[in-house]
Amino acid sequence: MSDAPAIRLGFIPLLDAAVPIAAAALGFDRREDVRLELVREVSWSNIRDRLAFRQFDVAHLLGPMAVASQLGLGSNPYPVIAPMALGRGGNAITLSTALFEAMREAAGEDGRDEADAHGRALAKVVAKRRAAGQPPLVFAMTYPFSSHNYEFRFWMAEAGIDPDRDVTMTVVPPPLTADALKAGAIDGFCVNAPWNVLAAEAGIGRVVAVKADIWPSSPEKVLGMRPDWWSANRETAGRLLVALDAAARWCDEPANRPELSRILARPEHVGGSADMICELLAGRMPVDGAGTIRSIPDYLTFHAGAATFPWSSQALWVYSQMVRWGQVPLTADGERAALAAFRPDLYREVFGSRIADLPAADTRIEGLAPFDAIGDGRTFDPRDVAAYVEGFPIRHLGSSGSGDRPD
Fold first, then answer.
1. DSSP 128-150
2. How far apart are the first and last CA of the chain?
3. Given a cut of 50, is residue 314 above it in pLDDT?
4. Which end of the chain is more exposed for a tag (fewer CB within 10 A), N or C?
């Protein structure tokens, strides 16, 4: 076992890093004769650079980062592939308590505690500030090419808020989001657990929407790696995927949540309260400082429902959002590049004889109701990205959009 090849994996301290963390902590890696060396990082730009510069072999990675890499977007562009997803869920939008109070006042009789009502209330506040000549609100996401950016924009646009004209979008690394909100540097943020809850429990933030309100299957974290590493280490990479699959199954078992919570709460992993993490894993989210709890079924899913399968259609949905917000033009070459990011073919190569309920196809119509509806009620047909993008009332085709900013 001492001769097991070491695999250096970078991760951000988020609950959706549970699969590689559990794989290393519980020995799922060593059972497959590989050895994970976990390295905790603070920002996605660091993950990007250290993967590019070969300081990491693989990484806990934003799914849209892999798509962006294939499109040559951002700083230090290099190709990354995702042969496996690391689960679904976990994101939430949190606004400052002062902003939320202004929204409640503006909402009046429409002040329901629901994501769409919160969006409409925010639109009223944005309009009022514009009329008064006040500066735009500042909202943070964790990376320009991220589910957080696209989900935050999707939610605002559905309420009639133009993210590129009505507010200011900026980048804040996940572990710094709550501190930025407390310091007044931002008015809200979208990030994965546990940082939303920390802001809510501290009384500085109010959770107003979660991923399930926007699209439950919105592509989240993946196992990212360079194509050359896969080619040079194909057998080792396959064993790594098998180890991560076993860890994902273990993480999904409700009986294992207390132990998983204790593992994630270690300072070298995510940190924080094991009790709080256990509540989140069970789908019970504190949304404010008063102890209000929102129940979110399947808030974090690590294996069930093909949660580890890298759907080609989801890579194309990410591409559609990049097109919508002017990060990239819509072209046939762009679609082909996006499809090169998520690699169901490699997943099938490893798991074809191991997983009985392997999806029959690599692509599907996304957002089918009732269990996986996209927030605007439309479905996404990967065969016609152009029609999908043109159906958005707010879009910025060909503009600079959110672009890749210094991070």
1. HHHHTTPPPPEEEES-SSSHHHH
2. 40
3. yes
4. N
**pLDDT tens per residue across span 116-149:** 999 999 999 999 999 999 999 999 999 999 999 9
Encoding tokens for residue 169?
């979008």
pTM for the complete prediction? 0.95
Helices (H), 13-144: 18-25, 28-31, 44-52, 63-70, 97-107, 115-131
The answer on pLDDT for 219 being more than 90 is yes
CB 9 within 8 A of CB 39: yes
Answer yes or no: do 232 and 337 share one domain: yes
Q: How far apart are CA 301 and CA 311, in angstroms?
A: 16
Residues 137, 41 share a domain: no
Q: Using alpha carbons, select from 239, 229, 275, 270 the residue that is nearest to residue 53.
A: 229
265-276 pLDDT, tens digit each: 999 999 999 999
How many other C-beta atoms can be found within 10 angstroms of the C-beta atom of residue 232?
Answer: 10
Three-class DSSP category at 48 = helix
What are the strands, taking DSSP E only, across 197-298? 205-210, 221-225, 284-286, 293-295
406: how many CB neighbours lie within 10 A of its CB?
A: 6
Are 157 and 238 in a shared domain?
A: no
CA 118 to chain centre: 21
Q: What is the pLDDT, as a whole number, of residue 2? A: 62
Averaged over 355-362, what is the pLDDT?
A: 89
pLDDT per position as a tens digit, 92-112: 999 999 999 999 999 987 778
Cβ neighbour number for residue 33 with a 10 Å cutoff: 14
- Tell me if 395 is assigned to some domain: no
Q: How many domains does the chain have?
A: 2
Averaged pLDDT, 165-185? 97
Residue 162: count of CB within 10 angstroms of its CB: 14
68 C-beta neighbours (distance < 10 Å), count: 28
**Beta-carbon neighbour count of residue 399 at 10 Å?**
13
Q: Is 121 in the same domain as 198?
A: yes
pLDDT surpassing 50 at residue 400 = no
Beta carbons within 8 Å of 221's beta carbon, 6+ residues apart:
14, 16, 17, 60, 61, 62, 63, 85, 86, 87, 192
